[in-house]
Amino acid sequence: MTIIFRSNRVFACILHRCKYSTAPKSVSTVQINQKEFVADDYTNVTPKIISYLGRNLHLQKDNPLSIVRQRIVNYFYKSFTLRGNPAFSVYDNLSPIVTTKQNFDDLLIPLDHPSRAKSDCYYVNKDVLFRAHMTAHQSELLRSGLDNFLMIGDVYRRDEIDSTHFPVFHQVDAVRTQRKEELFADHPDLEIFEPAFDPENPHKFTNTITDPSKQSCHTLEATKLMEAQLKNHLIGLVHALFGKDVKHRWVEAYFPFTHPSWELEIFYENNWMEVLGCGIVRNEILVSAGPNNSIAYAFGLGLERLAMALYKIPDIRLMWSTDSGFLTQFQEKDIDAKITYKPVSSYPQCKNDISFWLPPTLSIDTFMSNDFYDLVRDIGGDIVEQVKLKDKFVHPKTKKHSLCYSIMYRHLERTLTQAEVNEVHKAIEKAAVEAFNVVIR
Q: Of 147, 245, 251, 279, which sits with the fewest C-beta atoms within 10 Å of its C-beta?
């Protein structure tokens, strides 16, 4: 892994959040894996985030994420065959560096959609980012002529810091397309498309999603049959993972790239837990990628959420552990074995608060907490267990705005001393002053 920042100013910009740094006067570049990218005011990847590239936990033997990945792949291999071979192809080593066109435009995500925001994504520059979902590869794979495929890999999103959130996690996304002769093999009189839609001239038809039951180009019969297949296949997957007795329910949802759309929830430990999102692929996506005469369904799920539920893993950071006490619990086991994680040991938590006055250019409503979380993660690394916004305050006389965050530190493999925590905490305070022009209280 080669990571080179082609100027000290760019390094500072990336580390201390481009949004609050002075832009360099000359063009600067960032080099990742022997490839150079021009840095701009969108650049907000940090050295800490870049360090996760290439870890590929979903492919690491004995990692619980890899075990769940294999269980999902096995389900699709067994459930769908074509002339004796698996109908689904698997792509689990695609580059996580994608274009905004791949990540957003190809998926019909509007320009003003919040998922495009710098506060949500890790941008290399305004045109390139670390993929925020595996669906970013959907169009390129469809364009290559594939019809049924699984996309598995690491995805990157700026988020809060706690036991269930991490800036890097792993997803399985899938697409299944069908032509008329496949979908209506037993009913050749039925059609996928409404008479007004001409598959030979798809761009002459404006597809709409105003009808909650279907896209305007599709017949109701085609949509309902695809919906039935999709839901049956995903319930089968949940049964394969959690057992046939697990309760489930479907919840209507909205995604820019599918319609209709649903989320699947299971009743787990006395709560309803979302396990995946899915829907009928927007026909405009298929038309742009090539298959004009097909209908498709798609779904996406997170491996961490499933692994933590299946194996009772309490902290998402454990997925990144190289400690033998953790990994041996999943070593050389039948992938369908029931495994319950047993804590290797329990180390005490250290808690420090940080309070600061914001500069006049910022307020408690405009300051981006994700900017602060990334800074904490860069300085504190994986010993930061959780960061919580504890208090917001506006001084009644001066009208100055103040924020207070609680930072919980805990090492997964040893006891932290308060002295070393204090040293890290002071470094975070110093970095916050330099990055955001705040005044520590």
A: 245
